[in-house]
Amino acid sequence: MKTWFITGASRGFGALIAKQALERGDNVVATARKPKAVIDVLGDRPNLLAVALDVTDEAQAVEAAKQAVEHFGRIDILVNNAGFGVLGATEEISGREVEAVYRTNVFGLLAVTRAVLPHLRRQRAGHIINISSIGGYRSYMGWGVYASTKFAVEGISEGLAMEVEPLGIKVTIVEPGYFRTDFLDQNSLSTSPTIIEDYAETTGALREAMVTMNHNQPGDPRRLAKALMVVADAANPPLRMPFGSDTVEAIEAKNAFVAEELAAWRELAVSTDFPAEANATAE
Prior knowledge:
Blueprint lengths: L2 E4 L5 H12 L3 E6 L2 H8 L5 E5 L5 H15 L4 E4 L4 E3 L7 H29 L2 E6 L12 H21 L4 E8 L12 E3 L8 H14 L7 H13 L6 E4 L1 H26 L5 H7 L1
Parallel strand pairs: 1-2, 1-4, 2-3, 4-6, 5-8, 6-7, 7-9
């Protein structure tokens, strides 16, 4: 039996992951700004602890982690799921909108991770699962600001994985593609109200496409939740776990582009080193 600590657990991936873990007999600490919303979705179960948590409140994160350990004795798996998207061209999105999405997606993830890590270190065991996105591996027009938060999550996670590996703690970055959740609804996605006509053919067209795509995405979120149990049970879980054929295709396309561009510009790239003879003279 494992004990999960899941942020943003009242809907979307968070709720589905929590439900999957509960149904297989694991303990779940499901956090949300309003714990009642968690109970409404998951029911009142003996292996469920609903805890109030605004991830942007570091003191509240520390208290939530404390409650989890006092109630279930330990935390085995942290799922940093809380977050939201922002859609708009880079020039269209205001500084206030940028700060808001960073507060939740990046600073909130850091706050919760710092709150839980002391317990994992004491145990010399645990698994941190950070929900990123295909946008964390490859950005796209209209999604640049949102993608930048997920790029940050991936950078944090890579470094963290190296730091905690000697302590018996694992880190996995989950990269979903387009899944049929409520991510494109207004309660999960902030669309910048500023519209600049010069971006009509790029970001403007994407805004319209998102309306059509909403609730028609190719990914099945329940299958993702079930697949995540396999990752959680793995003795050697992956650092990156993409989910969805669209994500796999996007990763393969970006890797091919980067390799091709690097080959084309390799000579100039390496030309900035000191010449080999200069190094020999210095020695």
